[in-house]
Design a protein that fits this description.
Helices cover 32% and strands 32% of the residues. By secondary structure, the protein is of the alpha+beta class. The protein folds into two domains: 95 residues, no CATH class; 139 residues, Gcn5-related N-acetyltransferase (GNAT) (Aminopeptidase), CATH 3.40.630.30. The longest helix is centred in the N-terminal third of the chain and has 15 residues.
Length: 249
């Protein structure tokens, strides 16, 4: 049951953050979206029981060389552990450990906030505010806009404004009865005031209306300061972790 839930979350996360280009190869998907994200620029399993041998690694490396990108494998903690050994033997190094959190939607605050505006599409203002708060360079901002513009599942882009200025942003998607939170960010001057919680409560209300029964979110393990916030809104179960393995050079 836990493995089935974990795969539902994986599938939901793929739909919440689509790549600009993809190659399907022997049960793996190679994702390409230069300029903004490891998750959209890495090799990912399409099943947790799929194995990866040296021939697969070499073929993936060939494709990423052709796209003039480094080869990154996304390693899910509950998938085949032998791939890590093969990559380590080839000089791949580990980075970017990430937690996958889950919780039932009934445990989450779900009160719409009048200060939070929702849009079914990423507006020009929302994208500009996201680029500013995340510190995106122009090329990164363009890639980010293209990625969120490709989302095909139901989505809501949320912005909380204080005195007319963006204070907190995020977006949510719903797939397979799971509400996925993405790109949760608060302006530095507005942190520790509960704005992210207000924003997520509004997205949760929207997700309930879309039929979601569960919540999921992926966050970097280094962002430990955010864990109390996510626990407070019901994301109390760590389903699995993942990290990346980067090719040498």
């Amino acid at each position: 049951m836990e493995s089935a839930l974990a795969w539902r979350v994986e599938e939901t996360e793929f739909n919440a953050w689509p790549a600009l280009r993809e190659i399907y190869l022997d049960g793996w998907v190679l994702r390409f979206s230069p300029g903004v994200s490891r998750r959209a620029n890495s090799v990912n399993p399409l099943r947790f029981d799929i194995a990866g041998d040296d021939a697969l690694i070499s073929e993936c490396e060939r494709h990423y060389r052709r796209h003039r990108q480094p080869t990154l494998f996304r390693i899910v903690s509950i998938a085949d552990p032998q791939l890590v050994e093969r990559l380590a033997a080839r000089g791949y190094t580990a980075e970017g450990e990430t937690l996958t959190l889950y919780g039932p939607i009934e445990a989450a605050p779900a009160e719409p906030d009048p200060a939070v505006a929702l849009s079914p599409r990423p507006t020009v203002r929302w994208c500009a505010a996201m680029a500013a708060l995340q510190g995106h360079a122009p090329a990164e901002a363009r890639t980010y806009r293209r990625i969120v513009g490709r989302i095909a599942v139901p989505a809501a882009f949320a912005m909380l404004t204080i005195e007319g200025e963006p204070a907190a942003l995020a977006y949510g998607t719903v797939h397979n009865r799971l509400l996925c939170y993405e790109s949760v960010v608060t302006a530095p001057a507005q942190r520790r005031r509960g704005y992210a919680r207000q924003l997520l409560a509004t997205l949760t209300s929207w997700g309930k209306a879309q039929g979601a029964s569960g919540l999921c979110l992926q966050m970097q393990a280094s962002s430990a300061a955010a864990i109390p916030l996510y626990h407070s809104i019901g994301l109390t179960t760590e389903l699995y972790r993942y990290h990346y393995r980067r090719a040498p050079g």
